[in-house]
């Protein structure tokens, strides 16, 4: 096991590769979680997305239980649960159940976006879809995790009185400011929102108010990473993810496609600019190159932890990329 200079975690969307199935994607995720545990990764989080043929983690709490049952030590959690899609009581009960089954290993990361298109969001939420009531829903959820008061009629069972760490997730400054004001840990989605990265991290770090949960800020940064023996191979592996975002901006959905040698044959110049701008928060190259990129990123952002998304088509190459990333982090 390699010891990294900064804690590393994994964000997994349970990608469904071309001509595969969600069942195989879930099995791949379990194999990756076991691999991550052996390598010394801190956490393994899965994200809630809906109506996407290339992502198998829609029933996020169920997936977390499957992964936790198949591992022993690594923390398993959500990156995240989109709270406005659910009743706070249901989430308290679900994560109270998970914490009861796998004590000391469950994280609850919360977001306020739908995790899907607006038509699907309306089917999920059956009401307002703007997420503006997220702070109130968060207060309600935290109340269910607290020790019940005498005579309290509504209690989360399991859930009440359990220590389930809550993280706020965000791709802008909204959740950064909310996490800072409440003294909660914060994770920023730099893997697809690089433009707001520095503003969100500063908003969280500069405005943090110590709480019973945290004495000082705890900021985790989401990034993409593709690490291989050579820089050329790393860029080749990254082309699968680039194709996914290219299809997204074209309004198309699909499974994770095999890498290609030449993305210029697939996109127009304006599409290339949009995809590469969106994915600017990416570590890519051989171990030495990625170690330097990582050092620069940590110095610039002050992040306490990195959570890494590596949607690589070939599962062996994906495992190898995470191994090389851990070794790159040990060089810092």
From TrEMBL:
Q: Which InterPro entries match?
A: Bact_Lucif_Oxidored, CmoO-like, Luciferase-like_dom, Luciferase-like_sf
Q: Start and end of every Luciferase-like domain?
A: 21-304
A GO molecular function assigned to this protein is: oxidoreductase activity, acting on paired donors, with incorporation or reduction of molecular oxygen
Q: Name one GO cellular component term.
A: cytosol
Annotated transmembrane regions: none
One family from Pfam that matches here is Bac_luciferase
Query: Which PANTHER family does the record associate with it?
Result: LUCIFERASE-LIKE MONOOXYGENASE
Its family remark reads: To bacterial alkanal monooxygenase alpha and beta chains.
Question: What is the designated name of this protein?
Answer: Luciferase-like monooxygenase
């Amino acid at each position: 096991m390699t010891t990294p200079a900064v804690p590393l975690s994994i964000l997994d969307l349970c990608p469904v590769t071309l001509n595969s199935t969600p069942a195989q994607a879930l099995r791949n995720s379990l194999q990756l979680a076991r691999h991550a545990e052996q390598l010394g990764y801190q956490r393994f989080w899965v994200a809630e997305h809906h109506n996407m043929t290339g992502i198998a983690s829609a029933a996020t709490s169920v997936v977390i239980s499957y992964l936790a049952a198949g591992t022993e030590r690594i923390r398993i959690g959500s990156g995240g649960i989109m709270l406005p899609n659910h009743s706070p009581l249901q989430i308290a009960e679900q994560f109270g159940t998970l914490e009861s089954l796998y004590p000391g290993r469950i994280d609850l990361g919360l977001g306020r976006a739908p995790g899907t298109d607006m038509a699907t969001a309306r089917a999920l939420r059956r009401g307002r879809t703007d997420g503006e009531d997220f702070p109130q829903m968060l207060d309600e959820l935290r109340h269910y995790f607290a020790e019940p008061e005498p005579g309290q009629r509504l209690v989360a069972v399991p859930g009440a009185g359990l220590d389930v760490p809550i993280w706020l997730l965000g791709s802008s400054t909204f959740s950064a400011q909310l996490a800072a004001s409440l003294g909660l840990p914060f994770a920023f989605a730099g893997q697809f929102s690089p433009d707001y990265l520095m503003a969100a991290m500063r908003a969280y770090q500069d405005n943090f108010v110590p709480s019973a949960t945290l004495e000082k800020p705890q900021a985790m940064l989401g990034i993409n990473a593709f690490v291989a023996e050579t820089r050329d191979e790393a860029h080749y592996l990254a082309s699968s993810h680039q194709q996914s975002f290219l299809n997204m901006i074209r309004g198309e959905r699909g499974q994770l496609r095999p890498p290609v040698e030449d993305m210029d044959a697939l996109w127009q110049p304006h599409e290339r600019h949009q995809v590469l701008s969106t994915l600017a928060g990416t570590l890519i190259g051989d171990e030495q190159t990625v170690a330097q990129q990582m050092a620069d990123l940590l110095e610039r952002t002050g992040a306490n932890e990195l959570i890494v998304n590596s949607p690589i088509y070939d599962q062996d190459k994906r495992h190898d990329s995470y191994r090389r990333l851990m070794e790159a982090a040990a060089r810092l």
